[in-house]
Specification:
alpha+beta; Alpha-Beta Plaits; Double Stranded RNA Binding Domain; 3 domains; 8-stranded mixed sheet; 3-stranded antiparallel sheet; 11 strands; 46% helix; flat
């Protein structure tokens, strides 16, 4: 019975309340913070669980009164109001019962790289970055370019940006993978549609506690920046490349004129990439990948096609087709994509959890 699954959450919430009033816990700031956070995460679930149990009990009581000469009509009226509430409450509670992704509240590093398609792919990197930027603006997020490598005909061969705000990773984690574009390039005289692709990586930001990179495990190379930017670009060895020796993961930054600033940015990127690699390894070792993501979250997985001639966006993971590509790309109306993706992810997670 679904009602019986709810009691452990209520019991745990009550247990935490008692613990928080204990003098031993009050003197242990770390433990108190940990318990307060756990209780906060249970508050909504427990509130809905209590309402569900009250409603279920009231339905049972009214069913027993249906044969009563005096109270039967009143009980029938109550049931008409109460019974539709139960399925809606159950759906809400199932979502609240799902395990939380510990990275959902984190800021991210968004990495966009041009793949097959040359110049056209580099131009599409710029278009996709503009799409995410417009969505971020509407969501009240802050977006800042950390590093970029310009394309030969415009756009970017590679772009790394930091996106900060509430629930950034929770929404954007589904964007990791290969994004394919089909359109007629400006340079195409015959009007033929070309197919290009870019890779999107969404990496949760981490702090020193989560990823402790030992100085002896990091190799640092300095070199002169390349690309446009004026005469000062190539006069000093300001560009920095950091290599994490145990994993071979590399981060290179050359955007700043200061070697110190480039090193700080490169270290931030390196830590996030090492963390992401470990996270992917854990996901590969468990059968519960779908609790965290739609699909595998692999950078090599083709997740979406943007077809400009047909004004069509297709997300291949859930079979979603939208004829609103101009609105999504120009206005950042990604809600049209995110809401079905999240609904699908929740459905899969509920199935897997056996709720």
């Amino acid at each position: 019975m679904f009602k019986e699954k709810l009691q452990p959450f209520i019991d745990r919430h009550n247990e935490i309340t008692k613990l928080l009033s204990s003098p031993d816990i009050a003197s242990d700031i770390s433990r108190m913070t940990e318990l307060s956070k756990e209780q906060s995460g249970l508050n909504d679930l427990v509130e809905k669980a209590k309402l569900y149990i009250e409603t279920a009990d009231a339905i049972e009581e009214n069913k027993e009164l249906l044969g009563d000469a005096e109270l039967g009509d009143l009980a029938k009226e109550e049931l008409t109001e109460l019974e539709p509430m139960l399925p809606a409450l159950e759906s809400e509670i199932k979502i609240l019962m799902l395990p939380k992704d510990k990275n959902d509240d984190k800021n991210i590093l968004l990495e966009l790289r041009a793949g097959a398609g040359g110049d056209e792919a580099a131009l599409f990197v710029a278009d996709v970055f503009r799409m995410y930027s417009r969505y971020a603006e509407q969501a009240g997020w802050k977006i800042e370019i950390i590093s970029s490598n310009d394309g030969t005909a415009g756009g970017y061969k590679e772009l790394i940006a930091q996106i900060s705000g509430e629930g950034v990773y929770a929404l954007l984690k589904y964007e990791a993978g290969i994004h394919r574009v089909q359109r007629v390039p400006d340079t195409e005289t015959q009007g033929r549609v070309h197919t290009s692709a870019i890779t999107v990586a969404v990496i949760p930001e981490v702090d020193d506690v989560e990823v402790d990179l030992k100085p002896n495990d990091i190799k640092m190379d300095v070199y002169r920046s390349s690309g446009c930017g004026g005469q000062s670009v190539n006069t000093t060895d300001s560009a920095v490349r950091l290599t994490h020796i145990p994993t071979g993961i590399v981060a290179a930054i050359q955007d700043e004129k200061s070697q110190h600033k480039n090193k700080a940015k490169a270290m931030k990127v390196l830590k996030a990439r090492v963390y992401e690699a470990e996270l992917q390894k854990q996901l590969d070792e468990t059968s519960s990948q779908r609790k965290l993501q739609v699909g595998t979250g692999s950078r090599s997985e083709k997740i979406r096609t943007y077809n400009y001639p047909q004004n069509r966006l297709t997300d291949h993971r859930i079979g979603l087709t939208l004829y609103a590509l101009d609105d999504i790309m120009n206005n950042g109306n990604l809600k049209l994509v995110f809401e079905p993706l999240m609904a699908h992810a929740r459905t899969e997670a509920i199935k897997e959890a056996g709720l």
